[in-house]
């Protein structure tokens, strides 16, 4: 799509990366996505291709073997990939968040140990806050780590781990009870090494099978059960007990820009499909695009695609400039995911009955878009974050 979702001021390197990724999406992802999704098949060839392009190390600093690119570059790459198939962006997203957290908060040893192997995709990251009884209310985490000599013993059940089976490093937020008054100050992030696969993958660490989902198929989402699993104390992120909540929230903040970018990618694709179909399908003697009701839908969809893209780019640039972007990332995620649900719905309506057929790509997008309303914090949670931030900023001085 030449006209929509353009980004001003990109460097030559950014343009080159995006052009390479776009070609990869058109040739290697789009032609296979729907069949792989319907079969719920892990896209191994596509993942191998992404490894070859260096995408697992896109934002990892060059000193650790990565490409050292910005959050903006990453978000624009994700937008392209999600235009092809959202699940593929899911494969790199948790990895990206964990690499970011290690780079920002890890000890020098942790950075040396993980980042070079994360840059090549040899180590693949997942991250885990949610549990069966909680998602939005992170501070209520129950999974517990108890100190025992120079190890910690972890017990509890985590839920909804994207890449839970295919990753070999999981950043897990658990309760360590530091005696702090605020519940969130009693949480600690552990870097848990584990083999890939399902079942009891390590003593006291069980990854039951893949959760059967409505969409977002191909990529694995799992539970993770800890039954007395022992982790060395040196695996605490940054060596800082009680700092886990803040570390995770920092990771989720960049994750929210990524979710906004995914929503933009799906919306772009839904628009492309709708504008093409509207010119092919005729009713009452003319293409449906010439009925004003359909043309206006296209105009509204394109406007939403453009608005979401600009807010996503703004949030990424703010973080890249070294500023906190909680409000802007929340706004971008809220707007892009809500618009994405609306744009896919309109593209579906334009397809008439064919939109309900599994032969048409829009059917897949209709099942993918709702996840974006939930993942990395629901729309209600984004509104909480945005309003809190604004009230801090606009506090009345009496
Ligand atoms: C496919 C998939 C992949 C995921 N991957 C991961 C992952 O890799 N790692 C991870 O840690 N988690 C992951 N999650 C979990 C996800 O982050 C949570 O599902 C999400 O944060 C919502 O939490 P919940 O499901 O417990 O809903 P709840 O928190 O129970 O919320 C239920 C409803 O109540 C509303 N609500 C809750 N609290 C409030 C409030 N204070 N004010 C107003 N409304 C409120 C919510 O908006 C929602 O509508 C994944 C989820 C899915 C579906």
From TrEMBL:
Matches recorded under InterPro entries: Acyl-CoA_Oxase/DH_mid-dom, Acyl-CoA_Oxase/DH_mid-dom_sf, AcylCo_DH-like_C, AcylCo_DH/oxidase_C, AcylCoA_DH/ox_N, AcylCoA_DH/ox_N_sf, AcylCoA_DH/oxidase_NM_dom_sf
Residues annotated as domain Acyl-CoA dehydrogenase/oxidase C-terminal: 242-391
Every Acyl-CoA dehydrogenase/oxidase N-terminal domain range: 11-122
Pfam family, one: Acyl-CoA_dh_M
Cofactor(s) this protein requires: FAD
Every Acyl-CoA oxidase/dehydrogenase middle domain range: 126-227
Protein keywords: FAD, Flavoprotein, Oxidoreductase
Family matches, as SUPFAM superfamilies: Acyl-CoA dehydrogenase C-terminal domain-like, Acyl-CoA dehydrogenase NM domain-like
Record carries keyword Flavoprotein: yes
Tagged with keyword Oxidoreductase: yes
An MF annotation (GO) of this entry: flavin adenine dinucleotide binding
Protein family per UniProt: Belongs to the acyl-CoA dehydrogenase family.
Protein name as it appears in the record: Acyl-CoA dehydrogenase
């Amino acid at each position: 799509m030449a006209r929509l979702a353009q980004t001003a001021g990109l460097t030559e390197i950014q343009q080159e990366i995006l052009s390479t990724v776009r070609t990869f999406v058109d040739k290697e992802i789009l032609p296979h996505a729907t069949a792989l999704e319907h079969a719920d098949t892990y896209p191994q060839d596509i993942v191998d291709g992404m490894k070859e392009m260096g995408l697992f190390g896109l934002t990892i600093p060059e000193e650790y073997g990565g490409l050292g690119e910005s959050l903006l570059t990453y978000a624009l790459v994700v937008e392209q990939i999600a235009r092809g198939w959202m699940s593929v962006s899911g494969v790199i997203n948790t990895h990206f968040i964990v690499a970011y957290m290690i780079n920002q908060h890890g000890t020098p040893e942790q950075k040396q140990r993980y980042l070079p192997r994360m840059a090549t995709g040899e180590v693949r990251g997942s991250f885990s806050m949610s549990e069966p009884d909680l998602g939005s209310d992170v501070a209520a985490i129950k999974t517990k780590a108890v100190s025992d000599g120079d190890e910690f013993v972890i017990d509890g059940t985590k839920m909804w781990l994207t890449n839970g089976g295919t990753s070999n490093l999981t950043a897990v937020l658990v309760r360590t009870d530091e005696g702090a008054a605020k519940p969130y100050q009693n949480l600690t992030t552990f870097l848990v090494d584990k083999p890939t696969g399902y079942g009891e993958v390590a003593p006291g660490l069980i990854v039951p099978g893949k959760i059967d989902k409505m969409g977002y198929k191909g990529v694995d989402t799992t539970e993770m059960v800890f039954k007395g699993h022992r982790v060395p104390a040196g695996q605490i992120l940054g060596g800082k007990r009680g700092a886990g909540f803040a570390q995770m929230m920092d990771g989720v903040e960049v994750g929210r820009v990524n979710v906004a970018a995914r929503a933009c990618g799906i919306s772009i694709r839904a628009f492309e499909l709708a504008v093409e179909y509207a010119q092919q399908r005729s009713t009452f003697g003319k293409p449906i695009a010439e009925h004003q009701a359909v043309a206006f839908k296209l105009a509204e969809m394109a406007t939403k695609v453009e608005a979401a893209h600009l807010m996503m780019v703004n949030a990424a640039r703010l973080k890249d400039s070294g500023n906190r972007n909680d409000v802007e990332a929340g706004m971008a995620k809220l707007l892009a995911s809500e618009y994405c649900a609306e744009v896919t719905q309109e593209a579906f309506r334009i397809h008439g009955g064919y939109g309900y057929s599994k032969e048409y790509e829009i059917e897949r997008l209709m099942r993918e878009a709702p996840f974006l309303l939930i993942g990395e914090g629901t729309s209600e949670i984004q509104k909480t974050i945005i309003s809190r931030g604004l009230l801090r900023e606009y506090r009345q001085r009496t």
